[in-house]
Amino acid sequence: MEAKNVYERLRSDFITEETHDDWSFMTLNEFVCDEFKQQHNGLVYDNSRVIKRVFIVTFPDEALIETIINNNSDILIFSHHPMIWSSLKSGIPFVDIPVRLVSLMKEKRISFFVLHSPLDVYGEYSTSLGFMQALRMKYAGNFFQYKNESIGVIAATEYTTTASLSDYIASRVGHPLKLFSYGDAEITGGKIGIVAGGGNVPEALEALKECGINTYVTGVTKIFEGFKPSADFHEIAKKYSINIIGATHYSTEKWACMNMLDYFRKIGLGCVFMPGKPDMNDL
Hints:
Blueprint: H1 3-14, H2 34-39, E1 42-45, E2 54-57, H3 62-71, E3 75-79, E4 84-85, E5 94-95, H4 99-107, E6 110-114, H5 117-120, H6 127-134, E7 138-146, E8 149-156, H7 162-173, E9 178-180, E10 191-195, H8 202-210, E11 215-218, H9 228-240, E12 243-246, H10 249-266, E13 271-273
Parallel strand pairs: 2-3, 2-13, 3-6, 10-11, 11-12
Antiparallel strand pairs: 1-6, 4-5, 7-8, 8-10, 9-12
C-alpha cells in the first residue's frame, strides 16, 4: 500500500486538534517530520514510499526496534509512544531512540508513526478501554477529562475487595502488582476507575472522587524525583481515601496496541504486534 495513503487514513481516523500532544522534551532533530514537530503526534520519520507490513510496539524499545530493522525494509513501525520508557530516569522518564537506529530506519525505508493522546482518549482503540476489556469487565461510564476528551473509564467489577481485585488483575497481566491501601478495603458500589499508562496525576483522582469511587487502577504509581505531580498523586489519594492499584505502564497499555492489529487488517495491511516487557520499577 502507498505510504501516503496509510498516513492519511491514520490521521483521518485518529488525529484531531484536541489530541495534539506535548513531546517538547524529545530531540526534534533533522530526521523528524514537520508534522510531528508541530502536533507531537502522527508521522515521526517518513522514510517509505510503500508500506508492505506494519510492526506495532507499545514503546520503541531499543532491542525491539533493532530486531525489526535488521529483518525488514519498506515497512511502518507504529507505536503508542515516540520515545523509550525509562522509569529509572529522574524527571520525565523517557529517552530518545538512538540516532544510529533512526539513521538505519532511513536506510531501510522504515517509517515511524505515533498515536499517543489519540489512543489515550476514549474510543474504540483507547488504552483504558482496551485494558478494561482485557480484564473482562463491563463499561460503566467515563471520568477525567483532558482537552474536552474523556481519558478514564469506569468499570463494573464482581470483586468486592481491593485485595481480591489486585490478585485478579495480576493473573491477567502475568506479574505482581502494587496495592496502596489508602481507603476502605471494600470496593464502593462495585465500580472502579481505570486510567491505563501514566495515570499517576492528581487530576484523575479529583475526577474519581466526584464519582464516589474509592478504587483506582493505573499503570505507573512510582514517585519520580523531579516530577512533583507523581508525589501529589499519592497525597491526594490519602486525602480522599482512594485505593490505588499499579500494574505497570506497559501491561496496562499494550492491549490497545494489540487491538490496533484489527485496525490495520481492516484497512488491508499485514501486521504483527511486537511484545515488550513490563517495567516493575513503575510501581
